[in-house]
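Dear U.,

For the methods section draft, I wanted the exact inputs and outputs in one place so we can describe them consistently. I've listed the two proteins in the order they'll appear in the manuscript figures. Please don't edit the token lines directly; just add comments below if something needs changing.

First protein:
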Amino acid sequence: MSDASRKQTAEDKPRFLYRGVNAHMEDRALEPKRKGPFEHTFERHDYSNIKHDGNATYGPSVPNAVLGHQLDLEEARKSGISTTPKLERARFYALGNGRHSRGHIFKFDRNLLAAHGVCEYVVAKSVTVPHVPEDEEVILVARDGGSLPEQIVVGDPEEVTAVGQDVD
């Protein structure tokens, strides 16, 4: 890891976040699955997925959206883009745990987010037990509910390949 990637923000968070995508998703890496406000209201059919641990709230809220994102509820996966401060976890997702021979890693500078209208939601601050705690997931959301702006991406996406694979 380079010195630049070890620099911390003023709040002592890793400065950079990473998103790993397989080669088929590269063109959509900055686009959410669905566009719109990053709030969620749990419906009656969702109740079996919710633990009574205080993570869910009544009515539409951002904490519900983060929880729904963690529960992988399709209707809750709105305008959020999953990222991680851990480069090795982004590589894991780029290669799909061995399902893909190549992928790309996008690098985001947290110091540029607010200036470009992007909010970040640290999953561990909203969810008592994150689904994949080793990801240290941070969900990025454009304030307009659309795609993330390219201005927050540092450099070109890094191409990664599985061990023993050549880049085309």
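Second protein (the one for the lower panel):
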Amino acid sequence: MKNKWLIQLVWISVVMGSGLAKASSLVVHKQSSQVQWIAQQVEKAQTTFTTVQMNLNEHVLDLINKTSELVRGIVIMKNPNLLYVHYQAPINQFFYMTRRYTQLYQPDQNMDFKQKIGSSVSMGYFRVGQRLDEYFKDSYVSLWKETASTAILLLKAKTNKYHFQSMKIFISKKNWWPYRVDVRTNSVLIRIVFNQFKFNIPVRNGFFHFVPPRGVSVVKEGIDF
């Protein structure tokens, strides 16, 4: 169960980090100047906020087993590297990420998992949002569709480096914030939608550092503190 939820955080970090960074280095094959301009607007919007809170709705379709799962929760992020996710469905659990470690608390199972970033957790996964240019360098990027209110970027992977075949990123022109991402891999289809954004709400740094209650079974991987 733990690994499954850590994998899902990969796609959350895609749309929540510091944006489509380093737009000048994008590898594009259609409408490159427009894609770069859109990326620059997103980068500007996402690097100037202090905190953001948003609702998470995720649909995961397993193409092999023909099953699906709905995930619902609340996300709070604080620049530059603090992340909190309260998963409300299908099970109740809490995910924390700081510059040093990730933590997953499952109250119903009375378990707390803590991993040092850079050990068994891939740094590439959790740096996606902050360094999306790395995805762009390994993908063909185009402007799939544009309306008065939305721009949709399409990424088609050139290799299997990041384990996806294609990814669509939906960007609101109102605030230049990515609000939806559709991901296709060899085995799953993932759609993540964020809504009810609240920007620059007061959140203390200590909120992202969780101390499990007494009696909780704690599992640490690569943690020496």
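Candidate sentences for the figure legend, describing the second protein: The radius of gyration is 17 Å. Confidence is low (pLDDT under 50) at residues 14-31, 119-129.

Thanks,
Y.
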